[in-house]
Amino acid sequence: MSLILDTNALIWLIRGDPALGPLSRTRLEGEPRLCVSDISVFELSIKAAKRKLNVPFGLAAQIDQLGITRVRIRDEHLDAMRTLPFHHNDPFDRYLIAQSIVDAMPIVTSDRAFAHYGVQVIDARQ
User: Fold this and answer.
1) Beta-carbon neighbour count of residue 114 at 10 Å?
2) Helix crossing, 7-15 with 22-30: angle to 10°?
3) Phi and psi of 28, rounded to 5°?
4) Which domains occur in the chain, in start order?
5) Rounded to whole angstroms, how far apart are CA atoms 70 and 5?
6) Distances (CA, A) of 103 to 13, 25, 30, 47, 114
7) Between 20 and which of 12, 37, 83, 111 could a Cys-Cys bridge form, CB atoms 3.0 to 4.6 Å apart?
8) Which is higher by pLDDT, 100 or 1?
9) Do the beta carbons of residue 77 and residue 95 sit within 8 Å?
10) Quick one: CA dihedral 6, 107, 59, 126, positive or negative?
11) Given pLDDT bands bounded at 50, 70 and 90, which one contains residue 111?
């Protein structure tokens, strides 16, 4: 099975942040295929530019070094995003939810609103 990381889970994993709970960390370390959306890399670049988050240069290379698969932005994700109800207003999160649905991947996140869309959520804080 593949898991897709929400942006917060990705940052916590890379930084070794204890906000990523021990159960989630163990599951991620044992998972044969971890994925991250290009939309998350895009979101982190914006947050870094606005100085809202300290994101290292070379993040994409670091993701590759960790063996995390990048999931590209595709038309079918965008089409699915357009049909989602507005339980969540963040466009980056809405895209991740659509990607999770289209690609049938559980998503690792601390955001409880994701569950309102019927996607399989793995609580990153556990």
Assistant:
1) 24
2) 90
3) -65, -40
4) 2-123 (3.40.50.1010)
5) 10
6) 22, 22, 20, 26, 15
7) 12
8) 100
9) yes
10) positive
11) very high
Dihedral pair phi/psi, residue 121, rounded to 5°: -110, 135
The pTM for the full model equals: 0.93
Q: How far is residue 14's CA from residue 92's CA, in Å, rounded to a whole number? A: 19
Which amino acid is located at 70 in the chain? R
Integer Cα distance of 13 and 79 in angstroms = 30
φ, ψ of residue 107 in degrees (nearest 5): -120, 135
Beta-sheet strand order (sheet of 69-71): 69-71, 33-37, 2-5, 107-109, 121-123
Provide long-range contacts, Cβ within 8 A and 24+ apart, for 18-27: 19/110, 19/124, 19/125, 20/124, 20/125, 21/123, 21/124, 21/125, 21/126, 22/126, 23/126, 24/108, 24/122, 24/123, 24/124, 24/125, 24/126, 27/3, 27/122
CA distance 57 to 48: 9
Residue 114 is classified by DSSP as: G
Inter-residue contact 34 to 40 (CB < 8 Å): no
